[in-house]
Amino acid sequence: MAKRCFDLLLAGLGLVVLSPLLLVLALWIKVDSPGPVFFRQERVGRGGVPFRIHKLRTMTHTPATDGPEITVGADRRVTRAGRVLRHYKLDELVQLIDVLKGDMSLVGPRPEVPRYVALYPAALRDKVLSVRPGITDPASIEYRDEAGVLAAAADPEAEYVNVVMPAKLRLAAQYVEQASLATDLRLIGRTLRIVFRS
User: How many whole angstroms separate alpha carbon 160 and alpha carbon 149?
Assistant: First the structure.
């Protein structure tokens, strides 16, 4: 209950404070390339319940099935505005909407697409999906340059499934075991420091 109140308070305040910046970013996205401002994609949430996540669009507007579901290196689908938004994680600010809706938390395991969740080992799947997914978590900090890591692999998809995803799952499970408001505050602080230093 305390975590949910914490999420509601900070997400609501964040949207109010960030609304001028979000408006500027929305205009930039519209001017930079044709297509909608928002990107919506199905992710798996708490208890395995699917939801549609909000992001600011960072790629060219193409059908959802056009291209891989992972981003590798200097992906040609990423727009000029998208490169900046991704670098500073600005595309994820609108997930504060998902926090207010109750689909996400400020801190929690990053939500994955159903195709990859289907590959989770059963025990880890149950643990990771026992809490609301978050905007940030230890795995998103550890793998901040995930696209670069995958770009260095001979087979990026295999690297993600066999190396990166299991490592991220272990970090997510550790978070679930140790989760507290103090832990969340530390992770938010670490995330902000990394973003501002980048």
Answer: 9
Round the average pLDDT of the chain to a whole number and report it: 92
Q: Tell me the C-alpha distance between 163 and 115, whole Å.
A: 16
Q: What is the 3-state secondary structure (H, E, C) of 99-133?
A: HHHCCCEEECCCCCCHHHHCCCCHHHHHHHCCCCC
Q: Are 44 and 50 in contact (CB under 8 A)?
A: yes
In angstroms, rounded to a whole number, what is the distance separating the alpha carbons of residues 117 and 158? 15
pLDDT digits (tens, 9 = 90+) for 134-193: 999 999 999 988 888 888 888 989 999 999 999 999 999 999 999 999 999 999 999 999
Residue 128, token pair as written in the block: 């990771």
Measured between alpha carbons, how far is 67 from 62 in angstroms, rounded to an integer? Answer: 9
Cα 42 to Cα 50: distance, rounded to the nearest angstrom = 6
Taking alpha carbons only, the member of 40, 46, 61, 35 closest to residue 7 is 46
Q: How far is CA 22 from CA 17, 37, 91, 125, in A?
A: 10, 10, 9, 34
Contacts of 70 (CB under 8 A, 6+ apart): 150, 156, 157, 160
- Residue 20 has a CB neighbour count (10 Å cut-off) of 9
